[in-house]
Input
Amino acid sequence: MTDTRVRTGNGRGRVVSAVLLVLTIGQLLVATFFASGLAQFEGKGFGARLVLYPVMMLTVPVIWWLTTKRRDDPPWAAFSWIMLPFLVDVTGNTLDLYDSIGWWDDANHFVNWMFLGFGAGLLITRAKPRPRWEIALLVAGIGAIMAIFWEIGEYYAFIRGGTELATAYTDTLGDEVLGTFGALTAGVVTAVRQRR
Output
């Protein structure tokens, strides 16, 4: 009975992860090849995103697959949480929310890093129980590192030669802080849920 439930949950999780990947790649293809002239896609590195987003979305599942001995029980929920921010980001651009809603970018950095943090938290707590403070700090630290690397990637992809260079420093610091707090929030929630 338990085996069937685990397999059913894994089947659903696999479908969710696949749908997130397909929807993200589909929008990236449209933005890169069919609608590149639209204002919301101009100068935002969608050619690079078309290559890098799928790679980043699949990095954790591939690492898990290559390093684990228990391949019968993949952590699909964790994979889905880690993939979700890429879809949210691309969809925000597709719907022109970054340019039409002033707070959208800030909200994304907090919420998307919270999603990434939930995925990291599920992976961290999967192996063994940990103290709550350790979970919160690990997830926040992973989130902070990801926020730093994300901002470096944004700089090289479209800021250094684009129109946002004048405000990039302030925006980058704010994005890193919001991302770290989003991940810390996920770490605290994960720690509290594990204790229960």
About this structure: The chain has two domains: 1-101, 103-196. The CA atoms of residues 36 and 151 lie 23 Å apart. The first helix runs from residue 2 to 34. Residues 103-196 form one domain.
